[in-house]
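Batch manifest, entry 17 of 40.
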Amino acid sequence: MIRCGITEKRLKNARFRKTEETILRVFFEGECRCICRLAKRAGVHRTTVYFHHHRVAAIPTDYQHYILYMYKRTLKRLISGGDGKIETAFEILLIFMMQNKKLFKVALYLGDTTVYRKMVWMLRPLIEKAMGLPKNSKRMFNVYTGEIVELMDEWGKKDYSEEEMKTVLKNILYLTKSLRTRLAPIMEN
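Output type: structure tokens
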């Protein structure tokens, strides 16, 4: 029996990604409440849609996995290079959110900030290195992540506008630069 769903291994396949993008585009463009209608509009066979998603209601959750994979690919060179700048990383994050605002609107509507948190945590190695944070900084980083997620959430309520993005980026950079001084007392307790 073949398991359905999005996996890291499947996302490495260009044909799988292309089909997934088509299914997601069709899903977010219209009211597709059943697999048959979604398959017909996407121009793929019903079994192909089942291979990607076990039911229509699971598509937003599966989409989060897809988004995180694509975001991880985008950041891989920045973080692995070691010379990545925090400002560039957060700018990439915010642009990525603007480009995929449909997912983030769904997450915002569902009250789910998990995808925001995961995206910020992907930046953790870069932030720890740039800010010289100690190894036991997990509690500090949790508080920091909550602050960033709150900013992203507020930005989402303003429809992820490009004008507002500069303000959000400025606020994120302030929180990041003042991370040690603001949250050091947490580390002492």
